[in-house]
Design brief:
It is a single chain. The chain contains three helices and ten strands. Strands 2-3-4-5-6-7-8-9 form an eight-stranded antiparallel β-barrel. By secondary structure, the protein is mainly beta.
């Protein structure tokens, strides 16, 4: 299962400042190696986990600190400025036209192989070339997985990146180099599965856009990953459902 999920999400190296990823400011780890951790690090100024620390700015933040909106920014809010998290709502894989379970996902071993029907939803916004948003993996458990720890659920990642030039694709419009961090509080799957997938990941896709319709491709193989819609300020796409046998 782990191998399937991260076919799209290879392990990323560190180097980002404290507070860059959700949960950085409450994990008791010195994530950027500067000798300070959590709320003691200036990078956590204004983080929801450090409400007593502010950096004094009042403009729309592009990195850290509090800003001019009045709601407590965590992962989703109602303001319109480009603050530390995305303003667009987290996709709900099991509520937004989810696919019907396919009995082919029962497996070939007399229905004894745990697995799931899985599909991806990515909802991203652009502020200039800066990318923010969410990626989710929806999972419909097969009967064998339901007999153990499995059930219908979703895994949710926060996404950050910078739009780039296409990678080995002359017909593509741009690339999406994405850094992903699992949001444990927004993921509804079995806790053991969530824990096994914790940690930052990265992936890059190529994108073509024609009359507002987007196609998203793997950069290595050139195969299509997903389809959706795109504008100058956002892209929203989903993959076709497929079976994953664990």
């Amino acid at each position: 299962m782990r191998a399937y999920i991260f076919l799209l999400m290879a392990t990323a190296c560190g180097g980002e400042p404290e507070g860059f990823f959700a949960g950085d400011c409450s994990d008791s780890i010195d994530n950027d190696g500067n000798g300070l951790q959590d709320c003691a690090d200036p990078g956590c100024a204004g983080d929801f986990d450090c409400p007593g620390i502010v950096d004094g700015d009042t403009d729309s933040d592009t990195e850290f600190g509090t800003d001019s909106d009045t709601d407590p920014d965590t992962t989703v809010d109602v303001d319109t400025d480009p603050d530390t998290q995305a303003d667009n709502p987290i996709p709900q894989a099991l509520a937004e036209n989810p696919p019907v379970y396919d009995s082919a996902c029962d497996g070939e071993n007399g229905g004894q192989d745990p697995g799931a029907l899985v599909w991806h939803l990515h909802r991203l916004t652009f502020t200039g070339n800066t990318i923010r948003g969410y990626a989710v993996l929806g999972m419909r458990a097969n009967p064998a997985w339901q007999a153990g720890p499995g059930y219908d659920c979703q895994l949710t990642w926060s996404v950050f990146g910078t739009k780039g030039t296409p990678v080995n694709c002359t017909d593509c419009d741009y690339s999406l180099p994405l850094d992903l961090t699992l949001l444990t509080n927004e993921s509804t799957c079995d806790p053991a599965l969530i824990q096994s997938l914790a940690g930052p990941r990265d992936v890059t896709y190529n994108v073509t856009v024609t009359n507002g319709q987007a196609e998203v491709f793997y950069t290595a193989s050139g195969n299509r990953f997903a389809t959706g819609t795109a504008s100058d300020t956002a892209i929203d796409y989903r993959s076709l459902p497929t079976c994953a046998i664990f």
